[in-house]
Write a structure and sequence with these properties.
heterodimer, A: mainly alpha, 17 helices, B: Fumarate Reductase Iron-sulfur Protein, Chain B, domain 2, 6-stranded mixed beta sheet
Chain lengths: 354, 763
């Protein structure tokens, strides 16, 4: 009798890459739901557009590269990339924005670098940076959160706005952003930045309705939902604690110091933690295993770097939010970080200053 | 801060990095007694079942062997024998598929049991009564090698010179499914402790630490009960985590120490033995049962009866499985060992060997075959699981790239192939397989490099030899040519004046001013000694040819002694000639040659050696003194009587002149002061006549050396023959009342010889 030969180990934990990716997608659901509630159905349409584009691009490139399209598509990594980009884009941005971004993320940033596992940069964030640099206006045209919106927008309005730039009632995106006084409302981070540059103190600026409770109308809840999703990922051991803790810790630490020194010109650390893309970045973006550091110490360094860069760019840079840049810059340093944070192998002396 | 030992005594257990928690599935087999199987129809006993070499086969095909009889003999430290597991007939000694991942065929003894199970006579030992060597010998002769996995010969591992702090008994059994050690401990705890006591006698450790996972409470309790009141025996329950049974991991768990890379546990004072090995030792020593059976866990859902069995070594795996009700399914896998580190076999006729602790026949559901390998997403789960703190994802990357330098940098060699990384990999990458391939490639590269190096050394040696031979031929030709020239000139020229001597002296002075390498000087000195001896031998031969030599001294001396001396000198010269090539490079004193002739009468040998030494030293002595004070050292001269003084004086003068010449040619001789004294003390107790003979010989030797110098330095050839007349006036004539005639004869003979020598020189 002859038997099948296999290499040891003969036992595997039943948690595949596809399952991990699916869990990430599931964990993002609360965040997406809250985002849709506050910022409109546009989020869902962007999501749909992004996913379709991502799968098509992925399949096309895989076919061109002669890979097994079905097997690779089912690892769900393209899905996660699409998801992360879609939630980062303003919900009523024109349709071509997310399509260009997703195509760039999948084709250039991921597949041209060798496909899953070989990309240096986080595809979603690289695409986001591309869009932000190329199309700054639509990329910063966030609508105020639903309670502040003058017009209520239904699903049909979302479709109309995204595909025609005008809502069904004929308002343009800039009109939709206006408050009762006809002034365009920006995101809390943007507002704060503009106010501080005009000599207002933080306290004065924070009185504006766009800030709502703690960190911005709607934005606080969105961040809270992503935090919940992140904790779920931790509990499921899909991600390890080091990167999110380092990101949040360093952002908190830096902003706390700055706030202590000058509370009038710096936002409070809690505002920093719960505004913009902080939680999304800390739990969903920075933890992308492919482009993050792989060593234990390295993950702490990597996360701290992201948090620090985000704080610096938010406070002193030209952009209101900064996680896309921070993550990309940190991605670049990963090979270096990994090299210098190798663990001490059993039975070896510490590598010291290697 | 409590010391390590205090912490260990207090029951502290440490942790190691990484590790995984696969489903253990041990409950299937750890509550059933170990089953006994029928004796199988055939036993396939591989001759080598351990790390090391096979013993010499003691039986031949057709022999009837008894149970426990040694089939091979350990004729080597790394060999342990194998034994007949039952009585029966040797059917064949042939190649049979091995129980090894490679499935290579290896020499295997096929035994047909006769069913009588008849024992050979047994000789139990009392470990209290016998010494350590008897115990070690018994352990080796009982064929015991490590039963945990590697199969290292136990007698080597426990035969230590270094002090041992801790004897660790590995009862962890961390692999899923396997309960063989667990059952052994449950059923035979007291035997195991008896085995440990023998190990303690051999190793004298400070403490015995028995490491056992906390999922074996019954086994742990049995051991504790068996230990009773023994001091410094500690049963330490470690948390269930794979691979805590790895040698390095268990050491870390129990002592918080790490075995430095590339070293052995013994280097940090630790010896580890498997619990099964301890049991085998107890059986071998106390009952004289060699290692002929072992407990094997047979598990897997294709079996009707999953259980532990006591299997005879050599039982085919097929017999084990069939005895447990095996129902194969399509794509069936059979795994020898556990699911983490075991290996799949293709052919189930392979036998149970000393290291086989488990046979698995799982269903597809139970242990799913690996699905398709996906891309690494660098999640780092492998690095988190790695007990050696390696970075498996980097190793994978470099393994695929065949980058051996990087693999070394990332310490691939520290990988223990436990499989934890591959177990957790979400992309189902067979990481361990990649590492095995990479390790094999590295071994291959190293082998090739070694081969290339050897080839280069061979080539270099050959080139050098050819060059040397060419050089030697060239030198010989030059020498012959020089000698021809010297002969021609020597016959032509007769007299030139002291000017030549002055010239020669000046040259000597000049040359001696030049600094000389010490090694060179020593080498030169040795060479001269060797030459002196060689010449001595030639002369002795000449003496026997012309008996006048022996009779001429005509004294009370026994001629036999002279003959012996001559023989000795010949022997020495021969010896010396053999040693000649070395003598040039590494000074091998000519004197030692004497001690190399063993079958000589001691006294005679001593005399002969003394003579030879005296002569050699005399020669050496003559050289330096000849330069500055030509006469005084010449004891020979003082022996010369007044009657024939003139002749002798002339002879001596010639000898001196030649010695001078020699010294001039080889200025380093100036720096040899020592021999003169020893020479005189050696000559002190000798008969004066002998001294005369010695003097003559010395003269002759000086001549001989001078001739050689001539050959080497053609330009000085003339001086050799011209010095004699000029040296004559300096001759002090102070002869004592010795027998002048004999001395004269000796001198004459010396001259004659020298002449003869000269003639026969251009060989």
């Amino acid at each position: 009798m002859s038997f099948k030969i296999a290499s040891s180990p003969h036992q595997h934990i039943q948690k595949t890459t596809a399952q991990l990716m699916k869990l990430v997608a599931v964990a993002a659901v609360p965040g997406i739901a809250v985002q849709a509630y506050f910022f409109g159905y546009g989020v869902l349409i962007q999501l749909l557009l992004a996913i379709i584009t991502a799968l098509l691009c992925e399949a096309a490139v895989l076919a061109l590269r002669g890979k097994k399209v079905k097997v690779k598509l089912l690892d769900h990594s393209a899905l996660v990339t699409a998801l992360l980009l879609a939630v980062a884009i303003p919900s009523y941005a024109p349709w071509w924005l997310v399509v260009i971004g997703t195509a760039f993320a999948i084709i250039v940033v991921k597949q041209l670098y060798g496909g899953l596992g070989n990309n240096l940069f986080n595809p979603a964030m690289a695409a986001y940076v591309l869009l932000l640099v190329s199309f700054p206006l639509p990329m910063t045209s966030w609508l105020p959160a639903a309670p502040l919106q003058q017009q209520s927008l239904g699903p049909a309005d979302a479709v109309c706005t995204i595909f025609t730039n005008f809502s069904c009632s004929g308002y343009s995106i800039s009109q939709l952003r206006q408050d009762a006084d006809g002034i365009s409302m920006a995101t809390p981070l943007d507002t704060l930045k503009t106010d501080l540059s005009q000599g207002y103190t933080t306290e004065e600026s924070m009185k504006k309705p766009v800030f709502g409770w703690l960190s911005g109308e709607g934005w606080f809840w969105v961040n809270l939902a992503y935090l919940a999703g992140g904790l779920f990922l931790l509990q499921q051991k899909v991600i390890q604690w080091r990167i999110p803790v380092a990101v949040l810790g360093s952002l908190f630490g830096f902003s706390f110091i700055a706030w202590l020194i000058s509370p009038d010109t710096n936002a409070s650390p809690l505002f920093q933690l719960f505004s913009g893309a902080t939680m999304l970045a800390a739990f969903f973006i920075a933890t992308d295993p492919v482009s993050a550091s792989t060593t234990e110490k390295g993950r702490l360094v990597f996360g701290a770097l992201i948090g620090g860069l985000a704080f610096v760019i938010r406070s002193y840079g030209g952009y209101p939010d900064a996680f896309a840049f921070a993550v990309m810059l940190a991605n670049m340093t990963v090979p270096l970080i990994d090299y210098y944070t190798q663990p001490r192998t059993y039975g070896h002396k510490s590598k010291g200053a290697r | 801060m409590p010391t390590l030992f205090q912490q260990i005594q207090a029951g502290k257990v440490w942790d190691f990095h990484g590790g995984i928690h696969p489903p253990s599935r041990k409950e299937r087999t750890n509550q059933k007694p170990v089953a006994l199987l029928d004796i199988p129809d055939r036993l396939y006993i591989p001759l080598r079942q351990h790390i090391g070499v096979a013993g010499k086969v003691l039986v031949k095909v057709g022999d009837r062997v008894l149970k426990g009889q040694a089939l091979t003999q350990a004729d080597n430290a790394m060999a342990v024998p194998v034994h007949a597991p039952t009585s029966g007939m040797v059917l064949a000694i042939e190649l049979h598929t091995s129980t090894h991942p490679s499935s290579l065929a290896e020499p295997t003894l096929v035994l047909a049991p006769d069913g009588m199970d008849e024992w050979r006579p047994r000789k139990p030992l009392d470990p209290e009564q016998v010494d350590i060597y008897t115990l070690l010998e018994r352990i080796q002769e009982s064929g015991i090698s490590g039963m945990g996995g590697a199969g290292f010969p136990t007698h080597i591992k426990v035969n230590v010179k270094q002090p041992v702090d801790y004897l660790i008994i590995n009862a962890v059994e961390c692999e899923p499914y396997i309960t063989a050690d667990d059952m052994l401990m449950q059923e035979r705890a007291s035997d195991i402790i008896a085995g440990i006591e023998i190990l303690v006698k051999l190793l004298s450790p400070k403490a015995v630490l028995i490491g056992i996972e906390d999922d074996k409470p019954i086994a742990a309790a049995s051991l504790k009960a068996a230990i009773g009141q023994r001091d410094n025996y500690f049963v330490r329950e470690v948390p269930t985590k794979y691979p805590s049974g790895g040698e390095k991991q268990l050491i870390q768990l129990l002592t918080n120490k790490e075995v430095p890379a590339g070293r052995r546990p013994l280097d940090i004072g630790i010896v580890m033995q498997n619990v099964g090995t301890a049991f085998a030792i107890a059986q071998a020593v106390l009952d004289d049962i060699p290692l002929i059976h072992r407990v094997v866990t047979v598990a897997g859902e294709t079996l009707a009866q999953q259980q532990n069995v006591l299997a005879l070594i050599g039982t085919p795996i097929s017999d084990l499985l069939n005895a447990c009700g095996f129902q194969a399914e399509p794509q069936q896998r059979i795994i020898v060992g556990g699911p983490m580190m075991g290996f799949a076999i293709a052919d189930w006729s392979v036998p149970v060997v000393k290291t086989t602790n488990c046979v698995l026949a799982p269903t597809e559901n139970e242990l799913g075959a690996a699905s398709e390998e996906m891309d690494c997403i660098r999640c780092g789960a492998c690095a988190d699981a790695c007990p050696a703190s390696l970075l498996p994802q980097q190793l994978l990357w470099y393994s695929k790239a065949h980058d051996q330098d990087k693999l070394a940098e990332y310490n691939l060699s520290d990988c223990i192939e436990c499989g934890a990384c591959a177990y957790v990999c979400p992309s189902e990458i067979p990481l361990v397989h990649y590492y095995r391939v990479a390790k094999a490639e590295i071994r291959e590269t190293q082998r090739e490099a070694l081969k290339a190096e050897q080839a280069k050394a061979r080539f270099d040696a050959r080139t050098e030899r050819l060059e040397r031979e060419k050089q030697e031929r060239l030198e010989r030709n030059q020498q012959l040519a020089a000698q021809r020239v010297a002969q021609q000139q020597a016959s032509g020229q007769a007299s030139q004046s002291a000017a030549a001597v002055q010239q020669a002296l000046a040259r000597t002075q000049q040359q001696s001013d030049q600094p000389l390498d010490k090694a060179q000087i020593i080498a030169e000195r040795e060479r001269k000694k060797a030459e002196a001896l060689a010449y001595q031998q030639q002369k002795q031969q000449a003496q026997t040819a012309t008996p006048a030599e022996n009779t001429a001294p005509g004294t009370a001396e026994d001629p036999r002694k002279a003959a012996i001396a001559a023989a000795l000198a010949r022997a020495k010269a021969k010896k010396q000639a053999e040693a000649q090539p070395e003598a040039i490079e590494q000074p091998a004193p000519a004197e030692t040659a004497a001690s190399d002739t063993p079958d000589m009468d001691a006294k005679k040998a001593a005399v002969a050696a003394a003579i030879a030494r005296a002569k050699a030293k005399k020669q050496a002595e003559a050289q330096p003194e000849a330069i500055e004070q030509p006469a005084p050292a010449e004891t020979a001269a003082s022996d010369i009587p007044d009657v024939n003084a003139k002749k002798a004086a002339v002879a001596a003068a010639i000898a001196r002149a030649k010695a001078k010449k020699q010294a001039e040619a080889q200025p380093e001789a100036v720096e040899q002061p020592a021999p003169a004294e020893t020479a005189s003390s050696d000559t002190a107790d000798m008969d004066a006549k002998k001294a005369a003979v010695a003097a003559a010989i010395a003269r002759a030797k000086a001549k001989k050396l001078a001739e050689q110098a001539e050959a080497q330095q053609q330009t000085e050839v003339k001086a050799t023959t011209q010095q004699a007349p000029s040296a004559e006036p300096q001759e002090p004539v102070a002869p004592p009342e010795q027998d002048a005639k004999k001395a004269a004869i000796a001198a004459a003979i010396a001259r004659a010889k020298a002449k003869k020598q000269q003639n026969s020189e251009p060989l």
